[in-house]
Design a protein that fits this description.
Length: 314
């Protein structure tokens, strides 16, 4: 057997191994969520570059806000440089935490920096981004990043112990997202959150424009109160489910989803087994139109948990 033949036989094995490595990396960069409807869907984990860029934008915003507060207080010229530096650091800490918490709370896991970079924070278990999770992940950011950075900035030649400890701590916490499967920093691990790339908000048009959907929309009618119980993520899950409706494997999921939605929204009229797909089709069309009309798609109501009493107390 020649060396060329051996190389040709070994090539498929190497290619197979390379493909497997690529698949493993792809799976490691995906957050799989299984909502109550039982249809799992994947969300792409945000890159570390995007997260760093968003963080830099948010830091610039908080620094500018801190400087403006200093100017408003008239402290820049009335105190010494070191005193102004200490006061500015304190103002930065006071402004920083509320900034991140309020921004993520009212923009569904997105600060202005995250919004510009197209990323957002979500709960890894799919239960919704509660106030508790937002507060925990951002309070930990103070411990992980901001306090050590301020210690480094205020370091003096006479006392290098604390700056060295702060530098080592920064190296450790910055390495954590590189080794965790879902690129979670320490605050994410404690809060049960992850940062993802915003899922595409473009729902494919053929589901809503099919003739069957027009007939279903006339057969099943939903109130705004019923449609307000679900959000964009659930709508995307329903879209995936409807696209696989012809599969026999998907039929049990289709029936289960129809029963769950009926129970959730309090739909009183009975839905026969042969009408379940039409019911889901009608609900999809109505829900999509409702979200687009209210301009809530992918924004203030990204899922059914956001803004609910349960999510704010969990």
């Amino acid at each position: 057997m020649t060396s060329g033949t051996v190389a040709q036989q070994a090539r498929p094995a190497r290619q197979k191994k390379a493909r497997q490595k690529r698949r493993d990396r792809s799976q490691a960069r995906t957050l799989t969520i299984i909502p109550p409807e039982g249809v799992p869907f994947g969300l792409r984990i945000a890159s570390l570059y995007a997260r760093a860029g968003a963080q830099i934008i948010d830091i610039i915003i908080t620094i500018v806000a801190s400087v403006l507060v200093l100017l408003a207080l008239g402290l820049t010229g009335s105190v010494g440089f070191q005193a102004a530096q200490a006061i500015g650091s304190l103002i930065f800490l006071v402004i920083g935490t509320p900034y991140y918490i309020i921004a993520e709370l009212f923009s569904n896991g997105r600060t202005p920096g995250k919004r510009l970079l197209g990323i957002r924070a979500v709960a890894v278990d799919g239960t919704g981004l509660s106030v508790h999770r937002i507060v925990v992940r951002n309070l930990m950011k103070e411990i992980e990043i901001f306090t050590p950075v301020l210690i480094l900035l205020s370091a003096s030649a006479g006392n290098l112990l604390f700056p060295v400890i702060a530098l080592l701590w920064l190296i450790i916490v910055m390495a954590i997202p590189m080794v965790t499967a879902q690129s979670q920093r320490l605050g994410d691990l404690i809060a049960g959150t992850a940062v993802i790339t915003n899922p595409s908000s473009a729902l494919l048009p053929d589901l809503a424009s099919a003739p069957a959907s027009e007939t279903a929309a006339e057969r099943f009618v939903f109130t705004p109160a019923q449609m307000d119980l679900y959000g964009a993520y659930e709508l995307q899950v329903l879209e995936q489910l409807l696209r696989g409706a012809r599969s026999e494997v998907n039929r049990p999921r289709l029936s289960d989803a129809a029963r769950r939605i009926c129970r959730k929204i309090g739909y009183e009229e009975a839905v026969a087994p042969d009408e379940e797909e039409a019911f889901l089709q009608a609900f999809y069309v109505a829900q999509r139109g409702y979200l687009e009309q209210k301009r809530l798609f992918g924004d203030a109501r990204a899922d059914k948990h956001y803004g609910s009493a349960d999510s704010h107390t969990s």
